[in-house]
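in:
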């Protein structure tokens, strides 16, 4: 079992920055692909970014590439999402998720952290 706890959300003005962190429990964190997703009110959950255990990174190019940066620290069991040049349309609940290698789906989810970007 893996527990994920997000932190770092809040209210920021457009153009500002936030850094989200996700702390994971469990001794096998290093083997998980870690992802960030978000869900805005009335919309479906959206993939934001992911990083594999060897550091391969993918982004939702249409919405965040060039503004968001995902990173992980396997020694600290954390994954981070640095968000710069924030826009009002980035407003959402952001979720951290973990995928067991070979699973094909995200197996564990955090409770989410609210990010609100004011115009």
């Amino acid at each position: 079992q893996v527990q994920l706890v997000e932190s770092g959300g809040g209210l920021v003005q457009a153009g500002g920055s936030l850094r989200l962190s996700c702390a994971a429990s469990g001794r096998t964190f290093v083997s998980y692909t870690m992802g960030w997703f978000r869900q805005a009110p009335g919309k479906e959950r959206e993939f934001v970014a992911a990083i594999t255990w060897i550091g391969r990174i993918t982004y939702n190019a249409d919405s965040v590439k060039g503004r968001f940066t995902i990173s992980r620290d396997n020694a600290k069991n954390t994954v981070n999402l640095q968000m710069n040049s924030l826009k009002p349309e980035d407003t959402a609940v952001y979720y951290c998720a973990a995928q067991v290698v070979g699973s094909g789906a995200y197996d564990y989810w955090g409770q989410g952290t609210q990010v609100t970007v004011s115009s």
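note: The radius of gyration is 13 Å.
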